[in-house]
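FAQ: What does a ligand-bound record look like?

Like this one, built around calcium ion:
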Amino acid sequence: MRRRLSISLLALALGVSLLPLAVSAEMGPNGIYPMVFPIQSGAYNITDSFGDPRGGHLHEGVDIMTYGVKGLPVVAAAGGTVGWMANQQGGNCCAMQIEHDDGWATRYIHLNNDTQNPDGSYSDDGLGWGFAPGIGPGVRVEAGQVIGYVGDSGNAESIAPHLHFELRGPDGVAVDPYPSLKAAELAPLAVPPCPEGEICDTVAFQETGGRFVLWEELVFNAALTSFYYGNPGDVPFSGDWDCDGVETPGLYRRSDGYVYLRNSNSQGVADISFFFGNPGDYPLAGDFDDNGCDTVSIYRPGEQRFYVINDLGSNDGGLGAADYSFLFGNPGDKPFVGDFNADGVDTVGLHRESSGLVYFRNSNTTGIADSQFIYGDPGDMLVAGDWDGNGTDTIGVYRRSNGIFYLRNSNTQGNADAAFHAGTYAGVIALLP
Ligand SMILES: [Ca+2]
Ligand SMILES: [Ca+2]
Ligand SMILES: [Ca+2]
Ligand SMILES: [Ca+2]
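The answer part, i.e. the structure of the complex:
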């Protein structure tokens, strides 16, 4: 039996804090500083050696070991200007600091100081030069620009060549760069999967406290916007409720079938609320009739039945009967929606979280799956979106165990086409902001 929320309960549910919110442009969520990995070619190995005791002091960086190889190019982890450089030949040759535009800094220590021979080997003579041409104090550098070369200068003469890499906050204090380096490894130079000029879906993550964090591009160092909407435990989804081409969040309260829709990606109360379905149903949102407007339908797991409706409700009212329903799927599987064949009509799919099985239909009718394959690991959360702007929705998974979002540009089994470290969240939605 359905019941309406009282006004006060509704206010409590949706009238959350009105504090202005912004995710820091400097340090991303989960302690990840957005940067590119400082070595972009050649083999390396890193372990988290930050804070290890080193000859009377604590190690203030992470050593990126290069398996005995000198001369690998070192790139700036972020855009900024060259700060100090130590270039006295012999003793301290070839260490530098890049001062980032946001006040943070990175240090690159033990750059090469040896002479390269005609055969490519290095004489361990301390007479070489480990800075890239044109690099000097005050010079502007961009993220990914080559600034120097790996070596064994300074107190690394007696050990293997490596890059000692430090990350320092605006206060000058070294912070452990290891999580940021691991995140940067996933996205060399952070190339977004959306080609220049295309219109592509992105994702927003839902925090346990009800805040959404929207990634403007699908790269770990994307600009972020965040806003509070809804209550912990509400199931998030997204759609274009007002047919303006912008997709915004909706929430479904599975305990009572209440739908709360918002028409902007900003903090505030629901613009549209109504109820549809029964306790325990799952929400689905999409354009099931290709009229340019998304509506909210439901999947009833106990019946394995989809109930589709092409209208939205209003004013906390009930929506009435579905336009049509059909059977599809197996008990326990979770529904998702997408236009998997680029014909303009959204259809339904199901994801078996226990095994990673994905299967979907290209029409909203009963029948066997038009496609099925395995993607991701058990426990991953699945969403579908048009990540590359070609009109076809494909799969992406958010892996809560490591905070990484993996996406694929075809609905087939295989490795991710792109991935980025996002951090720890409770849920994820795909949307076209
Ligand atoms: Ca809209
Ligand atoms: Ca529609
Ligand atoms: Ca379709
Ligand atoms: Ca696509």
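Follow-up question: can I read anything off the structure? Yes, for example: Helices lie at 7-14, 178-185.
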